[in-house]
């Protein structure tokens, strides 16, 4: 498992126009819904190889790098170490890295938590969660993804209204690269079932009232009947960290 390696990304060789053309071809091939994840990932493996990375929060989305590893051995898995994770999340990362043929890259923000506290004041996550997420999640991921042509996510349509129209293969305008969402059609129960059947470790907090898991200060348990993401940034009207905006 590598920690924030500056030169680990393979680099891009295709132009933006070439990458956009690949997205158009893939969308014609797979459509907008009900695409088979293995068919999408087989195409991605043949098209991008090691110029593809997987982003994983080590919650329920560990099924995604597990799926990808069936097609690309030692694929880079990008994990954002914000400094605020639950211990269970870090344990899930370490167990997953030991169990599967992947290369987990732990990405670090520019500032440590004490450095951020000194510069912006303590508990920035309470006062300006957007700024905190931007520095500790969005910026490190942006930097890492610049070295790849495609990335794979665990994004699912049922999670938020913002994600309701996501496609299996998309053009990522922000990162100027191909974005793949192979389990976009899956329900939470489908994810859990796949993990159980294929011995994929998932975050144990999922079974303790945390259906959506982020940083510990910004995540609470969800009551029965609540939206699964109601426990994220509760009370501040925020539902996305910025990675998928």
List keywords for this structure.
245 residues; alpha/beta; Rossmann fold; 7-stranded mixed sheet; 7 strands; adenylyl-sulfate reductase (thioredoxin) activity; EC 1.8.4.10; oxidoreductase; Adenosine 5'-phosphosulfate reductase
Report on the architecture of this protein:
The chain has helices at 16-30, 37-48, 63-69, 87-99, 113-120, 124-127, 129-145, 188-197, and strands at 2-3, 52-55, 75-80, 102-107, 150-152, 169-172, 177-180. It is α/β, with parallel strands linked by helices. It has one domain: Rossmann fold, CATH 3.40.50. It has a seven-stranded mixed sheet. The relative contact order is 0.18.
Topology:
Elements: E1 2-3, H1 16-30, H2 37-48, E2 52-55, H3 63-69, E3 75-80, H4 87-99, E4 102-107, H5 113-120, H6 124-127, H7 129-145, E5 150-152, E6 169-172, E7 177-180, H8 188-197
Parallel strand pairs: 1-4, 2-3, 2-5, 3-4, 5-7
Antiparallel strand pairs: 6-7
Adjacency order of strands in the biggest sheet = 1-4-3-2-5-7-6
Assign the CATH topology.
Rossmann fold
The total domain count is 1
CA-atom Rg in angstroms: 17 Å
Provide the CATH architecture.
3-Layer(aba) Sandwich
Largest sheet: 7 strands, mixed
Give the termini separation.
28 Å
Poorly predicted residue ranges: none
